[in-house]
Amino acid sequence: MTTRRDLLKVGALATAAAVLPRAAFAQQAAAPQTFAPAVGQWRSYQIVTTVEILKPEGQVQAWLPVASFSNPDWFKPGENSWTTNARSAQLVRDPHSGADMLHLVFAEGEKAPKVELTSRATSRDWVVDLTRPGKPAPLAADERARNTAATDLIPTDGIVKATSDKIVAGKSGDVEKVRAIFEWIVENTYRNPATRGCGIGDIAALLKSGDLGGKCADLNALFVGLVRAQDIPARDVYGLRVVPSRFGYKSLGANSEIVTKAQHCRAEVFLSEFGWVPMDPADVRKVVLEEPPGKLALDDPKVAAARKALFGAWEGNWFAFNTAHDVALPGFAGPRLGFLMYPQAANAAELLDCLDPANFKYVIRASEIAV
What is the pTM of this model? Predict the structure, then answer.
């Protein structure tokens, strides 16, 4: 007899897929090369997120991000499936931000709320040749408005606009302006290892402090905000590193099958003669701080290669979730989230700390799969 306590199985995944052997994972991390992504073969990935609520209190809910982002050039979301003892479990979308998530509601009194979510996607390295302008289809008016708008944590006026105007003074055209902002981020910010998680992304506070340190959700948000302040469409793309860099950069890939803390925010800018273009100044600063032996100079060959490549290219060893800001969690009366990149859960008293996976508790595992 099936009861509420039985695992609820929802969704479907192709059973023919196979996880590639761990030896391939280890081999992939070897042999450092110059960081130079090139458009290549599609690769498929699987992430398995296991969430347990250790101290349930009253009504327990959980929200797990799934891929709602899609770009036919380099990222295709796949299927999701899950097992859980939740009373209800369904894929939902926050209509304001467009973020997709698995929303779970557990029965009051459930002593061990748990869910295991399996998600798949296909990705590849992507490069836009900025020496060969074209005529991409222009953005629809609503998409342009969405990607030039201010958000709760990314204003486009005040100190953000003033800073942006100073950076681009004397520049003309969107490519020249965006490059100036990219280089300013690389030259003037730093990756702060003490920042929790990927950072908060409050860019006005960052600029007002004068201390331009943080992690990807801070530095790339600052980049996006400075670009939007010039009325050029830009967006953060929130996701997860899933496998090592095939170029041997330890700082730019997942170096274990456990990717619980491998979240990473990238950025894209829409340039009038090129369309959506990948960019990641925050990862340049990550290479500076973390690439062995660490604390590299900006003119170090490893940094120079990443700096050149990450203006117009990136590696497809990454799983995208969404480009959402100001995310409302369905069924939760608390404040909106600045972004949705981590599993979230709440009990009757509060939203749990998503940056404390050991006590939350959640684990994320990633693998490359053959399909």
Answer: 0.93
Q: How far is CA 190 from CA 63, 220, 241, 267, in A?
A: 32, 12, 20, 17
30 vs 272: which has the higher pLDDT:
272
Q: Which domains are seen in the chain, by residue range? A: 43-122+323-369 (2.60.40.2250), 123-320 (3.10.620.30)
The predicted-structure confidence for 47-67, as pLDDT tens digits, reads as follows 999 999 998 999 999 999 999
Weakest-pLDDT range from 29-38, 165-174, 255-264, 319-328: 29-38
On whether the CB atoms of residues 201 and 338 are closer than 8 A, the answer is yes
Helix (H/G/I), strand (E/B), else coil: 8: strand
* Residue 94 to residue 222: CA distance in whole angstroms: 24
